[in-house]
Known about the structure:
- The chain is 22% helix and 28% strand.
- The protein is α/β, with parallel strands linked by helices.
- α1 (37-52) crosses α2.
- The radius of gyration is 18 Å and the shape is globular.
Amino acid sequence: MALILNIETATKNCSVALSKEGKTLAIRELSEQNFSHAEKLHIFIEELLLETNVTFQDVKAVAVSQGPGSYTGLRIGVSAAKGLCYALSIPLIAIDTLEILARKINISNGTILPMIDARRLEVYSAFFDKNYAKIRETKAEIIDKNSFQETSEILHLIGDGAMKFKEILTDEKFKYYPEIQFPSAEEMSLVSFQKFQNNQFEDVAYFEPFYLKDFVLITKNKF
């Protein structure tokens, strides 16, 4: 019985799910403008275990969203996941954040284009086909009216980065889904189970998040 704890903290959504054999048993998540991951993450984990009558010793692996995304959010999620794996001597599983977001939508044609807000006119993005296979590498890119002109097929834009460009990317091929804002641990359940079955584990000691961009500290002007 593969009980896996799934942690997704790469965006404003602090999300944790407990899954069994690839299916979500319970989930806790909260998205706030002012990131509350440090305060909420461990509380959510404890609540999930109590709700499902599961102990830490029952958990067989921890899966974590590896990025790209918020530097702080990723550090919090990965640090928690590594700490649990080390303490419990269980494997660590890493899942592409953009794939997690892409799995929030089902399509029959075209390409899924998940976008995570990277501030201003920049996003983290990649292309996924209808089976969630990545068909274009992950990029941090600035979007303008000439973006994505290399393809004529339908592009399904999802994520908190997508809606920033509804007035810029206006061709009929661009389809928007404003209700899909953030990745969730719920979409990690199936992927983490598949990776668990295939022994696709990370080195707990050396694993680092996929930041894609260097962290830049922004200070507010006091005057």
